[in-house]
Amino acid sequence: MEQVFDVAILGASGYTGAELVRLIATHPGMRIAALAADRKAGQSLGQVFPHLRHLDLPKLVTIAEIDFAGIDLVFCALPHGTSQEVIAALPRDLRIVDLSADFRLRDPAAYARWYGREHQAPDLQAEAVYGLTEFYRDDIRKARLVAGTGCNAATGLYAILPLLRAGVIDPDEIIIDLVTGISGAGRSPKEEMLHAETSEGIHAYNIARHRHLGEFDQEFSRAAGRRVEVTFTPHLAPMNRGILVTAYVRGEPERIHAALADAYADERFLVVLPYGEAPATRHVRGSNYVHLGVVADRRPGRAMVFAALDNLVKGSSGQALQNANLMLGLPETLGLEAAPLFP
Amino acid sequence: MEQVFDVAILGASGYTGAELVRLIATHPGMRIAALAADRKAGQSLGQVFPHLRHLDLPKLVTIAEIDFAGIDLVFCALPHGTSQEVIAALPRDLRIVDLSADFRLRDPAAYARWYGREHQAPDLQAEAVYGLTEFYRDDIRKARLVAGTGCNAATGLYAILPLLRAGVIDPDEIIIDLVTGISGAGRSPKEEMLHAETSEGIHAYNIARHRHLGEFDQEFSRAAGRRVEVTFTPHLAPMNRGILVTAYVRGEPERIHAALADAYADERFLVVLPYGEAPATRHVRGSNYVHLGVVADRRPGRAMVFAALDNLVKGSSGQALQNANLMLGLPETLGLEAAPLFP
Amino acid sequence: MEQVFDVAILGASGYTGAELVRLIATHPGMRIAALAADRKAGQSLGQVFPHLRHLDLPKLVTIAEIDFAGIDLVFCALPHGTSQEVIAALPRDLRIVDLSADFRLRDPAAYARWYGREHQAPDLQAEAVYGLTEFYRDDIRKARLVAGTGCNAATGLYAILPLLRAGVIDPDEIIIDLVTGISGAGRSPKEEMLHAETSEGIHAYNIARHRHLGEFDQEFSRAAGRRVEVTFTPHLAPMNRGILVTAYVRGEPERIHAALADAYADERFLVVLPYGEAPATRHVRGSNYVHLGVVADRRPGRAMVFAALDNLVKGSSGQALQNANLMLGLPETLGLEAAPLFP
Amino acid sequence: MEQVFDVAILGASGYTGAELVRLIATHPGMRIAALAADRKAGQSLGQVFPHLRHLDLPKLVTIAEIDFAGIDLVFCALPHGTSQEVIAALPRDLRIVDLSADFRLRDPAAYARWYGREHQAPDLQAEAVYGLTEFYRDDIRKARLVAGTGCNAATGLYAILPLLRAGVIDPDEIIIDLVTGISGAGRSPKEEMLHAETSEGIHAYNIARHRHLGEFDQEFSRAAGRRVEVTFTPHLAPMNRGILVTAYVRGEPERIHAALADAYADERFLVVLPYGEAPATRHVRGSNYVHLGVVADRRPGRAMVFAALDNLVKGSSGQALQNANLMLGLPETLGLEAAPLFP
User: Fold this and answer.
1) B residues 160..219 contacting A (CB < 8 A)
2) Can you give the CATH number for the domain in which A299 is found?
3) Does A43 lie in the same domain as A16?
């Protein structure tokens, strides 16, 4: 590896920012040239995230303090809403991987509907490429601005998209039941994310109105060539990392399995289990791998499709790095092949 | 309270046995006269379950050592298969609440199909009453042998039975997605139930072939007056207690909510949340209460029905005690009204 | 039980307030006549704590709205600092059990030192009785204002106080190592109490400067009849409830065990394990029981003394109720004998 | 990196075996040539550990099936007792890193005392080098057989050894209080390691008689040049990975901190926090790093010394790999610099 690219991370004091640092720390083709976290500016990242204290990193600064001249690519791990404003102010030739929700929906009306406000950078929105790597690889290679997917959305999309493309399931009968871990909620203090509130129990949240429905609608409809609306119920379970999708679909189970296996046969990170087996989130923890499975229902013509991934890696920061590798002309899997951490 | 009944617990060294002791310890109408645990005979219960060491209890004995002459009612918390043999050998006039799976299925063919062996006490099977208290209350009052329901089964039945009875959902389009805690797997050492194997992750198990499907088939078909087969996917989450059902059904959401609220309007332990709200298992932990909710899907004519209960209380030992109260002519709720433990 | 006393709970929207409601809900001698929570006034308690939604309770009001004329006793579960101001404004003949830290230290200078401000109600401070029931029982019976102990303090005091009184340990060589669960930190959102921050790990906090040192100094010095200063290191572990003290002391281990067993021989809630055994917090969870143990070190003249209790019950709300029983002339153990919840 | 060494792992179906595979999977200087697991022979490692299913690995075989001719180094991750028998039968010129307890104690009498049986390979025991890398680096480089340390032992040794060497603490007044996670207990099913038994609570175990005391005695006495006996109390906390030592020592706190910082100034994996700060296990999870801290007690001349590491990495498999790097002439830190996984 000769060339080493200089990258900046905006929003380094959140979990996805820290996860980018963790992954890039041993990446042979990238160097962290700047770290921004407006409210923590002046501190070291090791003060904010002690698990990274052994690393030799630049101090946290404000975004305004960064000289973007020498930066090859920016990871933007800022909150939704903030991201579009910050990115609109960055140099127009800068490669950007955005991890927020701001550029995921191509249709400004869909954005306004799901996020409750007008988009502030509609021209950038038109330019952005949706970051589901295995489905938009060629576009991402050429893109200047890539929009990271929602972590829940990615999990559901990996389970269902190839089945719609292959035409092996009924597009009107898709139910996505999902269980997610807690780190997806971020590091901002909220009563409902306290350990005492979330441990030792499970519940559904944002039922039938989770914003990732916007991504499902967009991608499923595109894949099916017609309007597709799914039912989607996310649940919160007492674990730090991991998303499990259990999708209920209609179709011939063995054909469904075959379609999934075919679609991902050459994918390094998408592992389709043998027919009849189902994955566990703990077996992909801390890694960029996705485990997928198909099990026949006892009723003919019905199947359950499962997908498990780590929300902070393949669901956000690992995906972002995979896309950045493509954008910089690096091998796509570089720095991402570490095995999951179990137990 | 004048009369105090003498009860025996067979299988006191398992979690459901210990939970019966916990509940009966402060029950004003029952006294624990005998505790059997064949492999731990000779020990005190406090040695086997230190959380009960403050109680003044009879020593653990073998079943053969118990004089059933003075016993008013027996709780049988033995493993599946063992239970039918033990109960067949007990005095024929003894009231029995069985917590195993042995007498749940009325049809011997169904038993053989789901449990992989012929029933050893088919005459007792015919006599047994299914222990879903709120639906079989009158039969239970007169019963000699009551079969406790499966804990997963109970959760799904509470969510769906009134809807089939009221005819407000399509019986052919029921999907029961379920998440259960770990205590339901019992206290026998198994690799897959080690803390390191189960914590920090989620996965589905026994997909499309869980034995509680036998109970669903039996009870849903009876309620609908026709054959009903549901799709059922159980998951295991890292929590000790609690079961959450997320059921996907077809019907008018507000009518569904009304049917559920009507059915349970006079029930002490079944709490239907306001329309649009969903329950959490942690809010029923350690208690005999069930929280139920109905939320409309974004697609018309579809809804999610939720039910949450504690598998060791309302799902087994609390249910057993509620049934025993009825069988002994005691107030049904006696000893069962303690509030949930949160956090 | 003929007489039923009317009680009010101030600060009902915190964990100790909710725990009081849980315990009093099945208490035969008390009725909850008023619930105050200034910021949640107007809501029902079931909205704030859904696990209590089945109870028939008065609405949450502001403290100012309560008519204290008919109230027999007030539980004050307000934050430190607020408590002394509120209590100073209450009718002077009202019986009060305060769960905050405001009246625990008899010496105003000690209060100022540990809490960093002057006490606002020094006359009340002089009147308050320290609420460690088993050691101040007679005073509590006659008290108007009882100050609940710190939950960490209570655990350490139960382990050590009888040993100092009996003179069986060296007062200059006491180390109290402690592990506490997370509910003790309360329900206010704090980054460091998020599930993602606290689960799957352990660390020490407030080392050598935890405020409960003030209580240790006060009570140990009184028991020993001389100045006693201990070393104290609290740790935070990923569990909701429970405190475990491991105290390192100098003395003859068997004499230490005998002194502890003698001191607590007639206590309902303090259970001394056989010599050589050590307790687990999970075996007292949700209950008012304390399990204590003594194990000899391999080096002669040294021992470890262990104590385990539930911080929200015996460490605060259960203790408060036990003291209230005494103040109202009710049996001391009334409403507090429920067995621990395990698993 | 030109040379790639062929290694074999004996005992690949346990947690330390799997952790070796995880670490070596991305190690540029080693290739896994053979994996043995007698009871799972014939299976793929992915069947036994699904988190490793994406790796291209040799099938599991019995030890007898391995041709050791082409193997450069063997990792032996077998149970205690089995290890010495297996290693005694291996070719005498084979480099071996043993992860069991069999070769940790140099003195056969100490081995017999702590493990309750005579050693079966005393000549090998004499040859073995204790694997605490930073203290035995030069011996390890030249060693044929290296004995991995106990994971608890390593944590305590890192905290205390430099202080004894520097003479800044009183060797007669050392108390090591320790909290460990659950993966250290291994994958064999045991009732006391079930999720329902270990979650949501904490307790001490093997008090004053844990076998790692043998390692403390050996290493502390050697460092101090005289007999040193410490007090040691291990606890089990509900977390998968991580060990935290809280050591209570006598000496000048700032000198203690300086001695620790000096000793580890050039060590890549041993990070001494600023004076007054204490570590958390979650900040080293999944990594080979150790975080150490020193905090002054409020009583002069006393201090608490803290050390946190991951029991499966720096406490066993990472340590083994670090030693193997030295034995093979590879850079010591190769394949071990991945940052911790948080949250």
Assistant:
1) 175, 177, 179, 196-197, 199-205, 207-209, 213
2) 3.30.360.10
3) yes
Instruction: Kindly report the nearest CA distance between residue B233 and chain A, in angstroms.
Output: 9
Please confirm, yes or no, whether C151 is among the known catalytic residues.
yes
Give pTM, 2 decimals: 0.98
Residues on chain C touching D200 (C-beta within 8 angstroms): 239-242, 282, 285, 343
**Taking CB atoms and an 8 Å cut-off, how many pairs form between chains B and D?**
64
Our count of domains for chain B comes to: 2
Contact D237 C179 (CB under 8 A): yes
Same domain, B85 and B195: no
C320 and C256 in one domain? no
Q: By the 8 A CB rule, do D51 and D15 touch?
A: no
CATH of the domain at D27: 3.40.50.720
- Residue of A155, A246, A249, A256 to mutate when probing chain B, most B C-beta within 10 A: A246
Using a CB-CB cut-off of 8 Å, the residues of chain D touching A18 are 342
Q: Do D129 and D156 share a structural domain?
A: no
**Contacts D264 to A, Cβ<8 Å:** none
**B160/B176 Cα distance (integer angstroms):** 9
Determine the residue of chain D that is closest to A53 in CA distance.
D271
Structure tokens at A128: 């952005």
Say if D275 is an interface residue toward chain C (CB within 8 Å).
no
Task: Give the closest-approach CA distance of B2 to chain C in angstroms.
Answer: 15
Give a yes or no: residue D338 inside a domain. no
Q: Say if residue B189 is in the same domain as residue B216.
A: yes
Q: List the chains bordering chain B where 3 or more Cβ pairs fall under 8 Å.
A: A, C, D
Structural domain that includes position B74: 5-149+314-327
- Do both B287 and B201 map to the same domain? yes
Which of C201, C241, C306 is nearest residue D242 as measured by Cβ atoms? C201
B201 assigned to some structural domain = yes
* C127 and C11 belong to one structural domain: yes
Q: Which residues of A touch C193 (CB under 8 A)?
A: 189, 194-196
Considering the domain boundaries, does residue D100 fall inside one? Answer: yes
**Contact between B22 and C50 using a beta-carbon 8 Å cutoff:** no
Cis peptide before B108 (omega within 30 of 0): no
Closest CA to C145 of C117, C123, C118: C123
The residue of chain B nearest to residue C281, with distances taken between CA atoms, is B51
Does C343 reside within a domain?
A: no
Give pLDDT tens digits along chain B (343 positions): 468 999 999 999 999 999 999 999 999 999 999 999 999 999 999 999 999 999 999 999 999 999 999 999 999 999 999 999 999 999 999 999 999 999 999 999 999 999 999 999 999 999 999 999 999 999 999 999 999 999 999 999 999 999 999 999 999 999 999 999 999 999 999 999 999 999 999 999 999 999 999 999 999 999 999 999 999 999 999 999 999 999 999 999 999 999 999 999 999 999 999 999 999 999 999 999 999 999 999 999 999 999 999 999 999 999 999 999 999 999 999 999 999 999 9
Specify whether A145 is located in the same domain as A197.
no
Chains touching D by CB (3 or more pairs below 8 Å) = A, B, C
